[in-house]
Every structure is written in C-alpha cells, then in structure tokens.
Amino acid sequence: MQTDFRVPSSTFRVFTSRGTLSSGVGAASWPVETLVLGVILVGATFMRLVRLGNGGGDLDEGIRGMQLLLMSAGYRPVAEIYSSQGPLLLDLLYPVYHLFGETLGAARLAVALYSLIGILGAYWVARLLGGPIGGATAAALLALSPTYLRNSRQALAEAPALAPAILAVGAAVAYQRSGRRAWLLLSGVLLGVALLIKPIVVAAVVPIAVAAYLGPRRGAGPVLLVGAVTAAVVVGIVLLTGLPAVFNQMVEYRLRSREASGWELRENWKLLQATLGRDGLGLFALAIGSGLALLTASPRRGLPFVLWPLASLGLLLAYAPLFPKHAVVVLPPLAVAAGAGAGLVWRAARARRWQGMLGLVLLAGPALFYLWSAPAVLAWDARLMSFGPSTEGERFAESADAARTIATLTTRGQFVITDHPYLAFLAQRLVPPELADPSKTRVRARELTGEDIAASGEAYDARLVVLWGDRLRTLRGFTAWLDRTFLPVKVYARGPDSPRVVYARRDADSSVVRSALQDSIRTPSAVDFGNALRLSGYSVDREELARNGDVGVAYEWEAVGRASVDYHILTELRGPDGQVWAAEELSLGGRSIGVTDWQPGRWLFQASTLEIPAEAPSGEYVLSVGVHDSRARAELAITAGDPRLGSRSEPLHRFDVARVRVR
User: Which residues make Cβ contacts (< 8 Å) with residue 490, sequence separation at least 6?
Assistant: First the structure.
C-alpha cells in the first residue's frame, strides 16, 4: 500500500500570527518568509561579490576571459572560437561581461549571478515538498557550501549550467504535483538549455524523468514529452550553431580526452573526498537522513529528490577526466534533498504523524553533526572571500609583469600565442580563436597538435609567443616552428629547467624590442661575469619588505663573449645574520634558449621573485646576483664593472644589487 503523507488544511500556515515558526506550504506568512529568503540571498550575494576582482586567474578562467574577449572582437563561439563547454555558455555570460567593463571580474560577476539563481531554484524545488522551512534550509545549505561558493566566484561553466538544471527539476516536480503539461514543457526547455551550457549536469535527467513518470498521468507519455522538448531545444541550437563544430568540440573531444586520460574509480573517489571535504560530512549525513525520511513519509513524491544526488554522485565517479571544479554538481541535489526532507519532517512532526516522529529520529544526529562541522565550513567560506578567487598557486606579480610585457611588445589587433590565455587577456591582446583553449586535456586528446598551433600562428601573423607551462613544449611541430620563427627575449624563473619565456619574432626590429623592455630597468650597469655575460641593468620593485611578502627583481643580460656552458643565474637575499633567507636559480640555457649559441651582443631580460619567509628576522638585507658555471660547479668571477674590484685582492663572485629592509 502506498503511503503518501498529506497535511491537514489547518496546518497550511508557515508562521503564526505572532511570527513564530510553524509548518505548511499553503497560505504562508509571506512577509516573514520573504524576509528569511531575503536574508539568505543578501548574505549569499555578499559572499559572492566581496573582493570578486581580486587575485589572478587560473587556466580555466583565462580560457573563459579570452573567449569573451574574442567575442568582443566579433568572433562567434564554437563556430570560430574553440569552446568545448557548450554552445550557450559564452552567450549567457557575455551580456554581463560586456556591461560591466569586459574584465575578469565582470565575467566572474556573471557566474555569481547565475549561482544566485541556482540558490533561488534550490529554495523553490525544496519548498515544493518541504514548505518554506524546506526551501530556506536548502537555500542556506547551498549558499554556505564552500564548494559551491568557490565555483560561484570563478569564471567557470558549472554554476551557470546548474541554474537552469535546478529549475528544470523544479518544473518537473511541479508537474508531478499539479499535472499541468506546461510545467513539463518548461522543464524540457530548461534542461535543454542546461545541457547546452555544459553537459555535466545531465544527472538532472533522472529526477525529471521519475517526476514525469510518477505524475498524475502515470506512464511513459510525460517522460517522452519532456524528452522530446529537450531534444528539440538541443538539436535546434546545435543546428543553428553548426553541427560539425559542436560535434567536434563537445562529443569527439570528450571521447578522445576520456580515452587519453583513462579512468580509475579510486582516483575519482579520492578527488571527490578531497574537494567535497570542505563542505563537511554533516551535509552528507543530513542529506542521507532526509532521504530516508522522504522515502518514509512520501515515497512517490520523495523519490526524485533522493535519486538526484545519487545520480549526480554516480556521474562524477564515472566521469573522466574528473577535475575538482566538477564536484560542485552534486551540491545542489544534496542541499535540495536535505531541505525537502527537513521541511517534510517538520510538517509531519507538527501534525503528530508517526512519519514525523521517525523523521526527527533520523535527522537529529545529522543535524547536530552539521552544526558541529559548521565552524569549519564557515572558516572555508571566510578564506574563499578573503583573498579573491583562487589563483591556483600563481604569483600574481609575475602574471601582471608578463601582461605588461605582452602589451608593450604588441599593439591592439595583433595576435599572441600562449599556453596561458589569462596573460593575453590581462594585456587585452587576442589569441587565434581556435587556440583560446590550450588545456593539457585538449593536447593529450590530440585535439590540439603542434602543427595546428603553428598553422594558426602563421594564419594570424602572431607577433609574440608566451610559454608559461610545459603543455605545448612537448609538441614537436610547434617547437620546430617556434625555434625557426621566434627568439626568447624575457624569462621568468620557474626552477632550473623550465623557465617561463616570452618570445619575439626573429624578423622584428631587435633594437626596438630591447628598447621597449628596457623601460622596466631602472638602474643601468656594466658588470661582467667571467668575460662571458654582462649585467647591463637591473631593477628592484621595493626596498621595504614584509614577511610572507615578496620582492621582484629584473635583470638585463648581454653576451660579451661566447659561452661554453649553460649558465645559471643565482639571486640571493641575505639577512643581517649572513644567512640566505630567500634564493632563486634560473637557467638561461633552459629549453629553447641555448646560451651556448649566443653571439656577442645577444641579450635577454630576466624577472625573478623572491618570497620572504614568515620567520625572517627584521633588519637590513642584501640582494645579490651571481652567475653559476653548472659544469664546473663554481661561480664566475666578476671581471669588470664592480667598484669594489680595485680594493680587493680576492676575486668577487656576487654583485650587490640592492639593500632592502625587512619589517
């Protein structure tokens, strides 16, 4: 026998005349309910907008920013701009991006707004079964989720895709309650839009299909109707965008990337544990307890709410390649299930039904568990709001300097080749549209080859190449074209073997390029090391340093003789006690640079960043530079240009660039 809990009409009040919390979903005290929802939304809005423009951008945000910048230049998503997320994503982000200044902060703002729609959607869906208490619980849980907050503050695709997916589930549940086919039609349209933003929300198909099947007209007909509407929306947009391009960038790309990256259940499980651990086990316990309560109190209406998080979790476990950003798709289903169950239990308990008593038993422990873990959850939220969106370990000062270098060496309308589009976006310079996404996944899947990059570079007459990682250096067709067409002009330290490099075209006027880069060099010099390399100038970005801060130093190097070995540049910061508190080593003979092939007069600019440890003592520090002979394992002696040479009998090996103070 089917158990379907129904609330007496006398309980269709949410708040009593005195304003105390009551139960029901009918004639609610709208001012109080609106106030509660308003408080949640105001708090959620603040959490998403505070310091939204701070920090740098990671690869995914750089891709998104570059795609939107290309749209501003007149290129179309998918048809011209490579966009593997979905054909509707960029069109949905672009209006807000354009209206608010075409910055990365504006792109993040668009995502934040869609995430707020997702919170409203979670409120509505949970309220359909759990009343205002259920809706408020779901909205609060989702608003406070660190994983959902992180995705809401970055220019990523998941939060925008989740917003219509949540509403699509809500429309299907509304049909299940009312039997009005208009809800089915709306659900199909919203689901189609969500899938066209990013297909990773496909788990929403499960609760929608179940709600449609279990509606008043029980059977396959409503399921086929909502499926037909979804298919019509998807097929229509795909045909308008261009079927071959969509198939290549969304279907074929995913199949190849899955094949190239492989799949392991254990690895996916570990990644989800690490990512979702910020939300605390209390949320999962609350969702499990609420799911059991839903199936006990109202199995027919509760089944879609229970199956949605299960389907989402199953999707993530089967997904390949899985990244931390994908984990967010399970958060709205969890919050909605927890909210709907909590609201339904409250209503049943107020009506003194046995289902309510059992539900209280099921939810008491998880609720206390969640409250116990709430401080850790709030701490994560505070951390995410304190420093702006995550930069994935990127030192923003280096990114900003690289962007200035790109802007200095190119003009608007000229194209740049880079494996980190965020740098070109900061400089407001374009990359070839098909190279907007140079992700490692795309390279591994052979959706982007070295020959493709070289062909695009020639077709768009790229004036600069900026390599910030290793993903393109492994492509032979690209490296051959790079060495043939470009020369390195500036390097950023990143360990001895993998410098970050800016390349200018060989046919560019070398004196003009050098003069442009010399604008960042404040102090000219002529310090020779071993009659091989000359320090022609240097700059230090600050003289007052803070612990946990950093100091940037720039050098201009020139060959004064033929180099026989690969020289390393050693920069050290020595404290008043003589101890080295920060150091950095850079190989000028790193990949594609070849110091041993330098002719006299060949030059190169270097930028290094030294981080000051928290335990460094206060006082005056000496910033010095030397040239290390990696073959002889010795430092080259200074042979000219240092005023101390005439006053010392022993050779000098290090040149003091500056004296700085740590406070």
Answer: 405, 501, 502, 517, 604, 605, 606, 607
pLDDT 10s digits, 270-322: 999 999 999 989 999 999 999 998 998 889 999 999 999 999 999 999 999 99
Average pLDDT in the 616-631 region? Answer: 90
Do residues 375 and 429 share a domain? no
- Name the nearest CA neighbour of 483 among 496, 501, 456: 501
Q: Are 568 and 587 in contact, with CB atoms under 8 Å apart?
A: yes
* pLDDT(469) > 60: yes
Note down the domain range covering 434: 393-519
Q: Are residues 190 and 334 in the same domain?
A: yes
How many structural domains compose the chain?
3
Widest distance between CA atoms in the chain: 102
Instruction: Examine the pLDDT at 57 and tell me if it is beyond 90.
Output: no
Cβ-based neighbours of 112, under 8 Å, separated by 6 or more: 45, 48, 49, 52, 152, 153
Rounded-to-integer distance, Cα 152 and Cα 385, Å: 11
Query: DSSP alpha helices (H): ranges in 73-103?
Result: 89-99
pLDDT at residue number 628 = 86
Residue 366: asked if its preceding bond is cis (omega within 30°), the reply is no
597 pLDDT above the threshold of 90: no
Residue 572 is assigned to a structural domain of this protein = yes
Question: pTM to 2 decimals?
Answer: 0.88
How wide is the angle at C-alpha 179 spanned by C-alphas 206 and 30, nearest 5°?
A: 95
CA–CA distance, 420 with 437 (Å, rounded to integer): 9
Please give the structure tokens belonging to residue 640.
């000219």
Token pair in block for residue 630: 């990696």
The 10 Å Cβ neighbour count of residue 216 is: 11
Radius of gyration of the chain (CA): 30
Is residue 512 domain-shared with residue 525, that is, in the same domain? no
Q: Is residue 15 part of a domain?
A: yes
Q: Which of 465, 492, 519 is the last residue of a domain?
A: 519
SS3 string of 152-210?
A: HCCCCCHHHHHHHHHHHHHHHHHHHHHCCHHHHHHHHHHHHHHHHHCHHHHHHHHHHHH
**CB under 8 Å, gap of 24 or more: what pairs does 615-618 form?**
615/547, 616/547, 616/575, 616/581, 616/582, 616/662, 617/575, 617/576, 617/577, 617/662, 618/661, 618/662, 618/663
Q: How far apart are CA 169 and CA 340, in angstroms?
A: 13
Residue 63 lies in a domain: no
Tell me what pLDDT residue 26 has: 41
Tell me what percent of the chain is helix, strand and coil, each rounded to the nearest 5: 55, 15, 30
Among the candidates 321, 353, 384, a domain finishes at 384
Contact partners, residue 281, CB within 8 Å, separation at least 6: 369, 373
Residue 389's pLDDT band, with cuts at 50, 70 and 90, is: low
| Strand pairing report for 500-505 and 464-467 | antiparallel
Domain shared by 433 and 293, yes or no: no
- Cβ(410)–Cβ(463) below 8 Å: yes
Distance of alpha carbon 649 from alpha carbon 647, whole angstroms:
7
Q: Does residue 14 share a domain with residue 133?
A: yes
60 in any annotated domain:
no
Give yes or no: residues 165 and 176 share one domain.
yes
The mean pLDDT value of the chain amounts to 88
